[in-house]
Amino acid sequence: MNTLSIAVAGCGTMGTGIAIVAARGGARTTLFDKDPSRLDAARQNMAAFFAKSVARGKLSEAQVAEIMARVQLASDPAEVAGADLVIEAVFEDLAVKAEVFQALHAHCGEHTLFASNTSTLSITEIAAVSGRPERFVGMHFCLPAQLMKLVEMSPGLLTAAATFERAWEICLQLGQQPVKTQDQPGFILNCFLVPFNNDAIRLVEQGVAAPAEIDKAIKGALGYAMGPMELLDLVGLDTQVLLCEALHGITQEPRAACPPLLRRMVAAKRLGRKTQGGFLNYASNTIYGS
Q1: CATH number for position 76
Q2: What is the pLDDT of residue 287?
C-alpha cells in the first residue's frame, strides 16, 4: 500500500498546524510556499511543537525524528505534483486562492484532489477557479489544527461523490473528526464564532471589561478552553477583519460587521500572537502549543 502524500499550500499558523496533523498522521507531507523564509520558520515551529510533545511524554524523540523525516519543504509548485491531496491554507481572499490553485493545477496529476481550508468563502466559487471543480472539497480545520480534531467537510456544487468520500477517508486516516456541512457562509462554526467574537470586541470597545477579564469570564462560566480574545489573537486580527467582511458581505448580519476597534488595531499592526501583541501580549510568536 502506497504511503499517503499530502501537500499543504501556505505555511502560516493554519498551514503549519495542518502540516503537523498530516505528518503526525503518517502522511508524506510537503509544505508549499513561494517564500523560502516562511518555509524555514514553519519547519522550526513544527520542530518546536514536537519538542514540547516529547517533554510532555506524548511522543518519543525517535517518533518525532520519524515524523519530521516525512516533512519536506517546497517553493516550486512542480514539487507537489505527486500529492494525493493538496490542502490550501493561504490568505482568505478568492483571487489569492485562485492564483495558488491555478499554479498547482498546472503541475498536479489528475489523481490529485484539491481542498480549501477556507472558513467563510464559497467552496463552489473557489472550486470554479481551481481547474478541477469535480475533484475539489472544503476541509476547514479548527484552530489550532495541531490540537483540535474537528474538520468541517463541505462539497461544492460540482464536487464528485468519490472526491468527497476519499477526502473524508483521508481525514479519518489522519486521526481527525470530520463533520459534513453544506457550502454556506461560515459553515457551522464561524456562523456562530464570527459574531460572538465581534460581540467580545465590542465589550472592550464600550469599556465594559478588559480583554483578559472577558476571557476569564467566558472560560470560568461557560467552560471554554480558550477565551474569545485569546482565540482572536491566535487567528490573527487581520484574519478576523477578512472573516467579518466575507460573512457580513453575504449575510448582512449586523453582528458580523467589523467593529471599528478591530480595524484600528490592524492599522496599528497589533495582529495577535504573530506580532506578539493583540488584545493580549505574548513572549514569542511561535505556533500555539509549542
Answers
A1: 3.40.50.720
A2: 79
* Residue 119: active-site member: yes
Summary count for the chain: helices (H), strands (E): 11, 8
User: Given 92, 125, 152, 230, which residue is catalytic?
Assistant: 152
In a domain, 255, yes or no: yes
Q: Does residue 205 carry a catalytic annotation?
A: no
Instruction: Specify the number of domains making up the chain.
Output: 2
Which residue among the candidates 119, 130, 197, 198 is catalytic per the annotation?
Answer: 119
> Are 287 and 15 in contact, with CB atoms under 8 Å apart?
no
Q: Is residue 190 annotated as a catalytic residue, yes or no?
A: yes
DSSP conformational letter for 254: G
Active site residue 110: no
- Of 157, 180, 203, which closes a domain? 180
Kindly state whether residue 286 falls inside one of the protein's structural domains. no
Name the stretches of the chain with pLDDT < 70: 1, 290
The active-site residue, picked from 140, 154, 197, 230, is 140
Q: Is the separation of the CB atoms in 289 and 228 below 8 Å?
A: no
Q: Tell me how far CA of residue 242 lies from CA of 139, 248, 268, in angstroms.
A: 18, 10, 16
271-288 residue pLDDT tens: 999 999 999 999 888 777
Domain of 202: which CATH number? Answer: 1.10.1040.10
Of 273, 202, 261, 271, nearest in space to 239 by CA: 271
Q: pLDDT (tens digit, 9 = 90+) per residue, 225-283?
A: 999 999 999 999 999 998 999 889 888 999 999 999 999 999 999 999 999 999 999 98
Q: Are 31 and 134 in a shared domain?
A: yes
Range of the domain at 249: 189-275
Residue 87 located in a structural domain? yes
